[in-house]
Amino acid sequence: MEILSHSTPVHELNALIIDNQNLVHDVLGNALNEIGINNVSSAFNAYHALRLCEEQTFDFVLIAFNVSCDKDGFHLFEELKHLQHITEKTTVVFLSAETSQELVNCIVELQPDDFWVKPLDSKRVVQRLTWLLKIRQSLHKLLNCLYNKEYAKAIYYAERQLQSDEVAEFHPRLKRIIGDCYFSLREFGTAEQYFRGLLSEYNHAWVHIGLVKALIKQEKMEEAETLIEDLIVRADTRFHVFDLLAQYYIEKSQFEKAYEQMQQACKLAPRNIERNKRLWDLARLNHDKPGQLAAVQSMAKFAKNSIHDSPELSLNVIRATLDMATASSAAETTTLIRKAESDIALLEKHKGLEKVLAEQFSVMRARVLCLKKEKKAAEVIMKSKKMHTDGLSMEDNLDKMKAFHELGMREQCLALLDKLRNQIEGDTFASQVVDEYIQQESIERKDISFTTVELKEMASVNYKENRFIPAYNNLKQALTLSPSNKQIALSLLKVLVQLNKKEPLNNDQQDQAIKAAMSLLKVSLAETQAAKRDEYIRCLHIQTALDELRAEPSSLLAS
């Protein structure tokens, strides 16, 4: 698109006010008229706002968090950006009476031009609108460059505008745009020098984060870590640091550390569905079944009435519930099965879904029957399933694969895993995390023929019969599937104590003992559990090895 040499005349600008309060429409409408914008449309709910945006393009969009029951303002803002009704050329103001840090973090990610806190002051509204209009008129060439992804030109126009005192209040935003453009152009060395120069002028969060990001992109880890240690305790930079570290660890395939950082980032900005999706993938990769369930529940909660809302999210909550049941105690499993059955029945009541999702419902029922130890009935369902992946999502096929595995149908299970690798090929994030998860599943499903619950039961029988080697092998596999399960780790140490009485532990057994003990030292335990842990550690003579591991210096950016 050709760069426009003149901005649109004020009287030709279109504005849209989205709020559910008449008073807000009056205040904003009068203020817009006062600065010369007379083409003002009003929407009292998200549905009406979307329809208006489909009919015409708006230059100003003023959107409130509290829109109406059909969709909140954050979801609507996100959807309008996704549909390109809001672009780099749109002046956006977000309005909210709620100012929690979690909401502010989420809104900042969507980058409105201004954020006003209700109740609104008429005089202040006119002042801010006048300023935003002035900025819009002065920066129209720059905004067009950003819209067209012409980042080198955008830097040129931004630097020209920095020479003008007329937009002095907007200088920090211009400088941030220049920094972002350097990253878009992958000029990381230039970005580093640029942000270093800004540090003497600004203490803004984006300056510090920009410098750290540029250093990390160039593998300058020592200095990056020094800066991160300070930024991670600052309220205005903490969220950005967690997010940056999570992405760094993903790129380095350090998925356990990535998961820890992603958990913190999601707590501070819980509404971002894509981030929650990554949290879920990392939870699966790290065998954290409670974490998987929490992540998909959060996605379902925050996606409600948004562009991300779909029956697939409800299906994934049920699937995560079933996954958790495969590693829980008998009492917990019963509760989780009831919850899954209730959720399946509720979802089936939605008109049309019982036909559209018939395949998915039948697979989940087979998994429920397996958990109830009614495997013959489950086999009847799964034997009719075809081995193709066409027309089904990755999650649909993963669930089918798990059903085959839980029934001991190994050939079908492994064949489906091979097909899944081809299904995710070409997805950047999947190639880093999901592909790793699929590979992990392939190894574990091939080497481990039973669920965590089944392995625990087998270990218990073997232990009672004094078959300690088989019991050890059962618990080792169970801990591979559920590394955060405290009871399995304690049971493994208990069996190793019995083995150690007969002869010294071999290297593998010694490593497993240290691994299990370390996992138990990192979590809170009941008094009786802690006493057993300490007793087992003494009996196995591994305290010195544990002390040495715990004394090792930790590095935020360790390779």
Main sheet overview: 5 strands, parallel
Strand order of the largest sheet: 2-1-3-4-5
Helix share, percent = 55-70%
Strand content: under 5%
Uncertain runs:
1-5, 426-430
Helix/strand structural class: mainly alpha
Shape: globular
Give a count of the beta strands, DSSP E runs of length 2 or more.
5
- The whole-angstrom Rg is 28 Å
* Mean pLDDT figure: 89
Distance between the terminal alpha carbons, to the nearest Å?
44 Å
Helix count equals: 29
Task: Explain how this protein is built.
There is one protein chain. With 559 residues, the protein is mainly alpha-helical. Among the domains are: 1-137, 3-Layer(aba) Sandwich (Rossmann fold); 310-447; 454-551, Serine Threonine Protein Phosphatase 5, Tetratricopeptide repeat, CATH 1.25.40. The chain contains 29 helices and five strands. It has helices at residues 22-34, 46-55, 73-82, 101-110, 122-138, 140-147, 151-161, 171-184, 188-199, 205-217, 221-231, 238-251, 255-268, 273-285, 289-303, 311-325, 330-348, 353-356, 358-371, 375-382, 394-406, 410-423, 428-447, 452-464, 468-481, 486-502, 507-521, 527-540, 543-551; strands at 14-18, 39-43, 60-64, 91-96, 114-117. It has a five-stranded parallel β-sheet with strand order 2-1-3-4-5, sandwiched between helices. Helix 1 links the parallel strand 1 and strand 2 (39-43). Helix 8 packs antiparallel against helix 9, helix 16 (311-325) runs parallel beside helix 19 (358-371) and helix 24 (452-464) runs antiparallel to helix 25.
